[in-house]
C-alpha cells in the first residue's frame, strides 16, 4: 500500500476577509516568527502581491523574500502589509 502526500495551500481556504482575519489571528497566537511571516505571504498572494506592493510602496521582490518561510520582515513591513490587508496590529493581555 502506497501513501499519497498532498500539498496543502491555506490560500485556498481564504475566500473572505473574515477567513483571512481568523487565519492570521490563529497564526499570531503561535508566536512563531517564521510561520507568521509565511502566513502574511500566503495572504498577500491571496490579495494579490502586485496590489499589496502598490499599496505598501514595497517592491514585490522584497515582499516575496520578507514574507516567506525564511523571511524576517521588519516591523515597518509587517505594519504596512497588515494595513494593506485592511487590518491593524493590536494588543491584548493573555491569560496567565
TrEMBL record:
Q: Name one GO molecular function term.
A: DNA binding
Q: What name is this protein filed under? A: Putative addiction module antidote protein
Q: What species does this protein belong to?
A: Rhizobium metallidurans
Pfam families to which the protein is assigned, alphabetical: dnstrm_HI1420
Kindly give the InterPro entries that the UniProt entry links to this protein: HI1420 (IPR014057), Lambda_DNA-bd_dom_sf (IPR010982)
Amino acid at each position: 500500500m502506497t501513501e499519497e502526500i498532498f500539498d496543502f495551500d491555506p490560500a485556498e481556504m481564504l475566500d473572505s476577509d473574515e477567513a483571512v482575519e481568523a487565519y492570521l489571528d490563529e497564526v499570531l497566537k503561535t508566536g512563531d516568527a517564521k510561520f507568521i511571516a509565511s502566513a502574511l505571504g500566503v495572504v498577500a498572494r491571496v490579495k494579490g502581491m502586485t496590489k499589496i506592493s502598490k499599496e505598501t510602496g514595497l517592491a514585490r521582490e522584497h515582499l516575496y523574500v520578507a514574507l516567506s518561510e525564511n523571511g524576517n520582515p521588519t516591523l515597518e513591513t509587517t505594519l504596512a502589509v497588515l494595513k494593506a490587508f485592511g487590518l491593524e496590529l493590536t494588543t491584548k493581555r493573555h491569560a496567565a
